[in-house]
TrEMBL record:
<comment type="similarity">
    <text>Belongs to the cytochrome P450 family.</text>
</comment>
<keyword id="KW-0503">Monooxygenase</keyword>
<dbReference type="InterPro" id="IPR001128">
    <property type="entry name" value="Cyt_P450"/>
</dbReference>
<keyword id="KW-0349">Heme</keyword>
<protein>
    <submittedName>
        <fullName>Cytochrome P450</fullName>
    </submittedName>
</protein>
<dbReference type="InterPro" id="IPR002401">
    <property type="entry name" value="Cyt_P450_E_grp-I"/>
</dbReference>
<dbReference type="InterPro" id="IPR050364">
    <property type="entry name" value="Cytochrome_P450_fung"/>
</dbReference>
<dbReference type="GO" id="GO:0005506">
    <property type="term" value="F:iron ion binding"/>
</dbReference>
<feature type="binding site" description="axial binding residue">
    <location>
        <position position="457"/>
    </location>
    <ligand>
        <name>heme</name>
    </ligand>
</feature>
<dbReference type="GO" id="GO:0016705">
    <property type="term" value="F:oxidoreductase activity, acting on paired donors, with incorporation or reduction of molecular oxygen"/>
</dbReference>
<keyword id="KW-0479">Metal-binding</keyword>
<dbReference type="GO" id="GO:0020037">
    <property type="term" value="F:heme binding"/>
</dbReference>
<dbReference type="Pfam" id="PF00067">
    <property type="entry name" value="p450"/>
</dbReference>
<keyword id="KW-0560">Oxidoreductase</keyword>
<comment type="pathway">
    <text>Secondary metabolite biosynthesis.</text>
</comment>
<dbReference type="GO" id="GO:0004497">
    <property type="term" value="F:monooxygenase activity"/>
</dbReference>
<dbReference type="InterPro" id="IPR017972">
    <property type="entry name" value="Cyt_P450_CS"/>
</dbReference>
Length: 525
């Protein structure tokens, strides 16, 4: 910031001196030059004295030239941001080799910039490594806010808008029953079953493929793509700070990132094209669902579809799958952890299900309004363990200001949703898992875990529906409990999460048993 202000000032100074010398040239140069210079100097000094002070946004002290290069939080971003919040307040600034990066940790700052001023703050930073070298610019999470972005959102609405979610109930039910059967068969492998549920549901919704196993080649390819996409985006690549490094030849010592980028690009292209071509073939032979995202959009835009439209749709399909699978699997696993740690919450939710639905059928989405406690449990899982603790980076397209600070054009901004979940102004005893906190509107429902403004998660309603559905199915048929030691004392697992962009609980011990004899009759078929 200081650097930019200095630049601006010196530009002003040289403009005034240019103006001064131009006038002087028209008159007698010798007689007017000195008074003009004095006048310009006085005006400039007065300007410095009376201009509103521009504060530098606080942040860790950097090094000469490289600035805060070593402060970049490649790991544990949310925790680092909590530490910075205590030290520097709700907005922390890093300057890395001329790039400004802001870390936002208060709901006020985040909603002001990302929601109220969404038209300014909804671009993504231009990342050389992931966008240019790996070719990820075509994926919706990386697309700049503009015509392509708006079209991609329009395509997504076909399968994700609240009014069409009903179309996925049969899928949710089918996958839900499979999940319950798997849990009954191999109760120790719940993590695997939940991941299979998420991958299979997403791939069926997006491509219409048959229900898939976790080691299905489509799932493996997608998982690999997700891992490398995460690595590419938050890896802190030097080429993003020194763009000219992108011209280094592949053989040059230290240019191994080029080879890595080639591999990533190939995988991403494969993930975008392979399933799309398969859907096209299967639609011709009538061997895939006509209701998937790809089928619906292919039909709709096939006549006269331009290569641009096809490119946008198939990349959007990849983005939906990428956005949906890890995040929802993480949320489901956190739900399981919460139930193991809080038997009283589980018992209360089960009592509500019994009272409203009984034991003759499985719950469904349509029961949501009659299950307010379970609804609060699901929201509390999202708050207690936000699967995406920190938003993807945003960028402002024009200079703006906030609280008296200047935010230069092209500043990168990362917002911690985690810090809102832990803000005592909004949530009392924030580390506690307490679904009753939302009783009678006491505390705000954490819709914010899906982000703010134009970039808010397009799958938020689907994500809620999915977790509600899984939670209702699982605890209406099974009871989770902690392991016990030899004396019979429950061993409550610690609440610990791992991962960077998407966080999921660390492995934990549990038992899961059918709630009553004959429960499998509800999901056998
Ligand atoms: C537990 C579930 C989920 C959570 C917590 C979550 C959260 C988020 C967050 C915080 C963002 C970043 C917002 C920002 O950059 O400001 C995001 C982006 C995104 N999410 Fe989700 N999400 C979830 C599930 C889903 C699902 C089910 C889908 C698709 C069906 C999805 C698709 C996407 C996409 C495509 C983006 C990129 C949006 C953009 O760049 O404009 N997400 N999500």
């Amino acid at each position: 910031m200081a650097r930019l202000e200095l630049e601006a000032l010196s530009r002003n100074a040289s403009l005034s001196s240019l103006g001064a010398s131009a006038s002087a040239a028209l008159a007698d140069p010798a007689s007017v030059a000195l008074p003009l210079a004095l006048a310009a100097g006085t005006v400039f000094a007065l300007y410095l004295a009376v201009r509103p002070a521009r504060k530098r946004i606080p942040g860790p002290k950097g090094w000469p030239l490289i600035g805060n290069l070593f402060d970049w939080p490649s790991h544990y971003q949310a925790e680092t941001m909590q530490v910075w919040q205590k030290a520097y307040g709700p907005v922390t600034q890093l300057s890395i080799i001329g790039k400004e990066i802001l870390f936002l940790t208060s709901a006020r700052a985040i909603s002001e910039l990302f929601a109220k001023r969404a038209s300014t703050f909804s671009d993504r930073p231009k990342l050389i490594f992931s966008e240019e070298l790996c070719g990820m610019h075509v994926l919706h999470p990386m697309t700049q806010f503009g015509a392509d972005f708006k079209d991609q959102r329009k395509f997504m609405k076909e399968v994700l808008a609240p009014e069409v979610l009903r179309n996925h109930e049969a899928l949710l039910d089918d996958e839900g029953r499979r999940l319950l059967r798997s849990i009954l068969a191999t109760p120790n492998e719940c993590d695997r079953h939940l991941r299979r549920f998420s991958s299979s549901l997403s791939l069926r919704m997006v491509y219409g493929f048959e229900a898939l196993e976790i080691d299905d080649p489509h799932v493996l390819l997608a998982e690999e793509m997700m891992q490398l996409a995460e690595y590419a985006v938050i890896g802190g690549w030097l080429v993003d700070f020194f763009p000219s490094l992108k011209h280094l030849p592949r053989w040059f010592p230290g240019a191994s990132f080029q080879k890595r980028a080639d591999y990533y690009r190939a995988k991403i292209t494969e993930m975008i094209s392979l399933p799309w071509n398969e859907v096209r073939e299967k639609l011709i032979t009538g061997t895939t669902s006509p209701d998937s995202f790809c089928a619906v959009n292919m039909r709709k835009y096939d006549d006269g579809a331009t290569p641009r439209t096809e490119g946008l749709i198939k990349a959007t399909a990849t983005a939906i799958y990428g956005g949906a699978s890890d995040t929802t699997a993480s949320a489901a696993w956190s739900f399981m952890l919460a139930m193991v740690r809080h038997p009283e919450v589980q018992a209360k939710a089960q009592a509500e299900i019994d009272a409203v639905i009984g034991r003759g059928r499985l719950p469904r989405m349509g029961d949501k309004n009659d299950l307010p406690y379970l609804t609060q449990v699901v929201w509390e899982v999202f708050r207690w363990a936000p699967p995406v603790p920190v938003t993807l980076p945003h960028r402002n397209r024009v200079q703006d200001d906030f609280d008296g600070y200047i935010i230069p054009k092209d500043t990168t901004m990362v917002a911690s949703l985690y810090s809102i979940t832990r803000d005592e102004e909004f949530h009392a005893a924030p580390d506690e898992f307490d679904p009753d906190r939302y009783n009678d509107g006491k505390e705000r429902v954490p819709y914010y875990v899906f982000g703010y403004g134009h970039r808010r998660c397009p799958g938020a309603d689907m994500a809620f529906a999915q977790l509600f559905h899984q939670a209702a199915y699982i605890i209406s048929c099974f009871t989770l409990a902690p392991l016990k030691d030899t004396a019979g004392t429950p061993l409550y697992p610690p609440a610990r999460w791992a991962g960077e962009m998407v966080r999921k609980p660390e492995p934990f011990g549990y038992t899961i048993k059918p709630r009553y004899e004959g429960v499998e009759a509800l999901f056998r078929e």
